[in-house]
Automatic annotation (TrEMBL):
Protein name: Site-specific integrase
Organism: Fructobacillus americanaquae
Lineage: Bacteria, Bacillati, Bacillota, Bacilli, Lactobacillales
UniProt cross-references to InterPro entries, sorted A to Z: AP2-like_int_N (IPR028259), DNA_brk_join_enz (IPR011010), Integrase-like_cat_sf (IPR013762), Integrase_catalytic (IPR002104), Integrase_recombinase_N (IPR010998), Tyrosine_recombinase_XerCD (IPR050090)
Domain of life from the UniProt record: Bacteria
PROSITE patterns xref list: TYR_RECOMBINASE
Pfam families xref list: Arm-DNA-bind_4, Phage_integrase
Keyword annotations of the record: DNA recombination, DNA-binding
Ranges for domain Tyr recombinase: 163-350
Family that this chain belongs to: Belongs to the 'phage' integrase family.
Membrane-spanning intervals of the chain: none
PANTHER family, A to Z: PHAGE INTEGRASE-RELATED, PROPHAGE INTEGRASE INTD-RELATED
Length: 357
């Protein structure tokens, strides 16, 4: 029960509650009438019984930062760390003085709306996912009594790159491989490997000589290379650990290339070429052949698109790329190369025309 008493000409309310098992008091003075004091007492008592007063008062940003450092940073990949740091900076900027217990769904939605004004929808979704993950943790820990992540939606007003801009067409793909073969640079070797295997940059950089079996024509992907910390790290997902077969062309090239002691693609500094160096080389090659500009990761898209467009089963492509299931593959590569699209369109129309005869 609230304690209401009069001091001088004003009324004071005092309510006892507990936070993490510790007895606390909430007191407010300055009410001119007892009815005003009673009204505040009733409102505060309702918060007490709903659990709102029992939450530990914690600022949102430092609490989320500590959660990230303990539960996330030690185990996530560099690319994921970049996203977490982006979200942490956003939270620090938008909610510098907000308590975890203060955040409501409307606050969260306003943050997503504002971010979505200058970003694509998929980026807003990442922000939503990361903050929502922390929100569930905060709720479980008793830092807030409300799930502020419910009923929010993702927005985005900036158009993302079209699927066509993320991979090369057949002729561009062939030109790139031919041009890269003319160079003996580490970056060129890594580009060819990406084209013919669909491996990620970190997977290619993390290849050790023991991972390449030239007799059985296979590559075993068991770890990745973090170019920032200069450490071997686990693969992106468990399903990314896999053994894939190599085409004869790549086997012949591997026999000609000189492997390093620690890495298959080892430069004079003892490390593989950086992603920046590979992207720079790739950009120059594509420019020389008047091909569309894509990133090194776009070679993975190109590899998958090429196989799918040539009637290779989605199950095989999914396994080759290291996806957990075919739904992921279909979601990313639900497109065909331009030549294949035209071919399928013609086949479909021919079949439909038969119905009219």
């Amino acid at each position: 029960m609230a304690s209401i008493y009069k001091r001088s000409n004003n009324w004071t309310v005092e309510i006892v509650y507990r936070v993490d098992g510790v007895r606390k008091k909430k007191r407010k003075s300055g009410f001119t009438t007892k009815s005003e004091a009673q009204k505040w007492a009733n409102l505060t008592e309702s918060k007490k019984y709903s659990g709102e007063l029992s939450t530990t008062a914690k600022l949102f940003y430092p609490t989320m930062l500590k959660w990230y450092q303990i539960f996330k940073e030690p185990k996530i990949a560099r690319s994921t760390k970049l996203w977490f740091n982006t979200v942490l900076k956003l939270v620090e900027k938008e909610w510098p003085d907000k308590l975890v217990s203060d955040i409501r769904s409307s606050d969260f939605q306003e943050l997503l709306n504002k971010y979505g004004q200058t970003h694509v929808k998929v980026s807003t979704k990442r922000v939503n996912n990361i903050i929502s993950e922390f929100g569930r943790y905060a709720f479980d820990e008793g830092y807030t009594t409300r799930d502020f992540t419910r009923n929010v939606y993702n927005t985005g007003k900036v158009e993302s790159k079209t699927a066509e801009m993320k991979f090369l067409e057949n002729d561009e793909f062939q030109k790139l491989i031919k041009r890269a073969k003319q160079s003996n640079s580490i970056s060129a070797h890594m580009i060819i490997t990406a084209c013919l295997t669909g491996m990620r940059y970190a997977e290619i950089a993390g290849l050790r000589p023991k991972n390449v079996d030239l007799n059985n024509k296979t590559i075993s992907i068991v770890e990745t290379w973090d170019q920032i910390s200069h450490e071997f790290k686990p693969t992106k997902t468990k399903s990314s650990v896999r053994t894939i077969s190599m085409p004869d062309d790549l086997v012949d090239l591997f026999k000609k290339w000189e492997f390093g002691d620690g890495f298959v693609f080892q430069g004079i500094n003892g490390y593989p070429s950086t992603s920046a160096a590979c992207n720079h080389t790739l950009k120059n090659y594509l420019k020389k052949d008047n091909s569309k500009q894509i990133t090194f990761h776009g070679l993975r898209h190109t590899h998958a698109s090429y196989l799918l467009a040539n009637d290779i089963s989605v199950q095989y492509v999914s396994e080759r790329l290291g996806h957990a299931n075919t739904n992921i593959t279909l979601g990313i590569y639900a497109h065909l190369l331009e030549d294949k699209r035209s071919e399928e369109n013609l086949k479909a129309l021919n079949k439909l025309n038969i119905l009219n005869k």
